[in-house]
Amino acid sequence: MFDFLDKYDVLGAFWTTVQLTLLSAVGSLVWGTLLAAMRVGPVPLMRGFATAYVNIVRNIPLTVIILFSSLGLNQTLGISLGAHGFDAINFRLAVLGLTLYTSSFVCEAIRAGINTVPVGQAEAARAIGLSFTQVLGLVVLPQAFRAAVGPLTNVLIALTKNTTVAAAIGVAEAAFLMKKMIENEAQLLAISAVIAFGFVCLTLPTGLILGWVGKKVAVKR
Amino acid sequence: MSSVLYDAQGPRAKRRNTLYTAVFLVALAALGWWVYTALDDKGQLAWPLWKPFFSGTEAYSTYIWPGLENTLKAAALAMVIALPLGAVLGIARLSDHVWVRVPAAIVVEFFRAIPVLVLMIFGLALFAQYTGVSSDDRPFYAVVTGLVLYNASVLAEIVRAGILALPKGQSEAALAIGLRKGQAMRLILLPQAVTTMLPAIVSQLVVVVKDTALGGAVLTFPELLASANTMSGYYGNIIASLTVVGVIYVIINFSLTSFASWLEGRLRRRKKSTGAVLAVQDLADIAGTAGTGADPAGTGAGIGDGGARK
């Protein structure tokens, strides 16, 4: 029943999924944190920019962003992000799209984390003469991150699932392979079960482990 | 402008912030200039490419409106089917009987763990192999099926959280006056929970609308994004088409998000209720979905609130 597994590189496809997830996760964590810092910072222009960015990006379907990066950035404007060959270019474009999209949710998760930090913490930090970057970097963000592990885990799980959208521009990840296998083999249920099992294996442990970590590191108040 | 995160600005801080503003402005301008030249070099700013959207209604009546119609139809239908399913699953998860609670939990957790695109692809093949649905209708059926399966499980969690968010006294009082468990749920808990979770449900609509675009890109479902793609083939203006479509999505989803926040604030202020409102942020936690909308920081009394201290 599962003999189609020999013909297709299922593990390789899931490895691409994992790569997409990890690279975009790192990218969006950095960019999302920067956006969050801009949103709570003292410079009005940066605040406005970050707010506008988040409100626009999270309201556009990821599919539109990914398609735009392929059809618009690559095929029309000729941007290839330093990669050569169809597969490599589309992979990088997918990571770019996923990062730009996910960072808006990372920003919101961190902002929610910042909101859990009691006002007294920031007041005390200011009272001893720390500047904004010090208040944020030394006192508020470390606590905010610990509170944000839960929301960030959900963003990571959503990101894992969202990598399937890269199939729309031909990145050979799990959903792309699933479509190909279904077209060629007459074993719909077995194929779907394998792909579903793969995603359950990726998302369920992420949720469980990081959920446990989140409880462990949460600041007890 | 002051916030709990930084002191009121003196002359030096003001000068420094002006400098930061200037540097940031230059960076933004450079980015803008780079985008402008990149577009201009490839002739993407030529008027003929953008003209269809600003003069005449052909682009709208031939491409955008039919696509938008399909998007909204699929989203609405999926939501209408998913809501009762989600309610049943959510209530089942709260059951006192293990043999009801555990299967419901497994179903919910399973469909939440799987990407909606995988469900759609599965649905497409399922309808092709096991039913007589014509090949024209199949993508629509598949998109709705995928959306229903995924969103029913998300809504189940919303319903569960909504009922759990009610004060315990509500169910205790209901049982104390002699109502049975089913009656307490139907007459006391659910009616209150519905208002509690209304904002969360509206924000979930944003996710549904956004996910319909998957059907256009991968399953040839003729919704807004797919028709934009067709349109760009006709006018040769992919960048302009995708930009216009992006703006349309932002308008729809931003109104939905704002409506959800407004609803949340209104329910929170209402004196009649128990005061339990399922914040939109809770939804993001429940759904594990990066598709949720609204303003999580808007509900807390914390310090990251857009700079202004409450």
Automatic annotation (TrEMBL), chain A:
Family note: Belongs to the binding-protein-dependent transport system permease family. HisMQ subfamily.
Listed GO CC annotations: ATP-binding cassette (ABC) transporter complex
Cross-referenced CDD domains: TM_PBP2
GO biological process: amino acid transport
InterPro entries assigned: AA_ABC_transptr_permease_3TM (IPR010065), ArtM/GltK/GlnP/TcyL/YhdX-like (IPR043429), MetI-like (IPR000515), MetI-like_sf (IPR035906)
Keyword Transmembrane helix: yes
Domain ABC transmembrane type-1: 14-210
Annotated source species: Streptomyces monashensis
Pfam families xref list: BPD_transp_1 (PF00528)
Record's keyword terms, sorted: Amino-acid transport, Cell membrane, Membrane, Transmembrane, Transmembrane helix, Transport
GO molecular function list: transmembrane transporter activity
Compartment(s) of residence: Cell membrane
Protein name: Glutamate ABC transporter permease
PROSITE patterns: ABC_TM1 (PS50928)
Keyword presence, Transmembrane helix: yes
Membrane-crossing residue ranges in chain numbering: 12-37, 49-69, 89-107, 128-149, 155-176, 188-213
Mode of membrane association: Multi-pass membrane protein
From TrEMBL, chain B:
Protein's cellular compartments: Cell membrane
Broad class of where this protein is predominantly found: membrane
Chain segments annotated as transmembrane: 19-39, 74-92, 104-128, 140-166, 187-209, 238-263
Keyword Transport on entry: yes
Topology relative to the membrane: Multi-pass membrane protein
A GO cellular component annotation in the UniProt record: ATP-binding cassette (ABC) transporter complex
One Pfam family in the UniProt entry: BPD_transp_1
InterPro entries on file: AA_ABC_transptr_permease_3TM, ArtM/GltK/GlnP/TcyL/YhdX-like, MetI-like, MetI-like_sf
Keywords of the record: Cell membrane, Membrane, Transmembrane, Transmembrane helix, Transport
Domain ABC transmembrane type-1: start-end pairs: 68-260
Keyword Transmembrane helix listed: yes
NCBIfam families for the chain: HEQRo_perm_3TM
Protein name: Amino acid ABC transporter permease
Organism: Streptomyces monashensis
